[in-house]
Give the backbone structure.
Amino acid sequence: MSTSPAATLPLSVVIPVYNEEANLPLLFKRLYPVLDGLGRAYEIIFTNDGSADRSRELLAAQHAARPDVTRVIEFNANYGQHMAIIAAFERVRGAVVVTLDADLQNPPEEIPKLLAATDAGFDCVGGARQNRQDSAFRRYASRLVNVARRQMTNIEMTDQGCMLRAYSHDVVAAIVRSGAVNTFIPALAYTLSQNPTEVPVAHEERHAGVSNYSVYKLIRLNFDLITAFTTAPLQLFTMFAGVCSALSFVLVLVLAGRRIIIGPEEGGTFTLFGIVIFLLSVTMVGVGLIGEYVGRTYQVVRGRARYHVSHILDTKS
Ligand code: UDP
Ligand code: MG
């Protein structure tokens, strides 16, 4: 079981980076002055999630320029945004931990708002994006997932996708201890917190480049969100399958009765085909769902390292 070090600093800022060479210079330019202006000691942990561009060089240069506050974790390959954040969580020294995207969609200038909430005693502060600057598809998909999440889990938040968030060191340590795989950090943090809240934050368009999330990756992530926190889909499926088999049993009775009273039907073959195919598809959905849970169990049981760090740039360790 992994643990995180004790809190020896007031603030840690955690930023996952994947092919962000076009955004990093401006991010550095906007982020450091905000943090320097807070009047509290801080550290920034960048996780380079196997970028194929010059992100690595830019991060190394920034570490050289500000070794006092900059730490860089280098992954050997791409493990995804949430693993990049977990790797940083395993190393944070801040009493408060802020997460932020590297593409400037979350303005660094909003960090003080989150800190005002953590200072007020909230241990899990979510940013709720105002005027979200994403494609209409992303916004509608998000709304849909929101509804599903609200129905199936008891996680209450208006914006689960915003990565501009602040957590207490305790919540971060609990996330690390949980050893979660395929996790959706905002939701996990919420379930581990005592006193969560949300604050409105601005949202900007991606400064440069395109989103690293393909539709495929988004579907996987949101599937994770539901299956990692509830077994409700399994139960819903079981109920649905129960209703289906009851209905098809009634249908069989009706058909049998018809056969005895009116005689065998001839034209009904296709109806039967339809019914059989429908039932088959229901079964397939169920098998897929069960597979998802079995897969998760397998991953935990296998206990394989979730990511591999190739090296760390850090003056203190
Ligand atoms: N990211 C990462 N690994 C990945 C994909 C993304 O570390 O495999 C980082 C990326 O550099 C950015 C953040 O996660 O800092 C959010 O990614 P992106 O902007 O592509 O997602 P979106 O804002 O479209 O949800
Ligand atoms: Mg983005």
In short: The CA atoms of residues 106 and 232 lie 32 Å apart. The chain is about 50% helix and 15% strand.
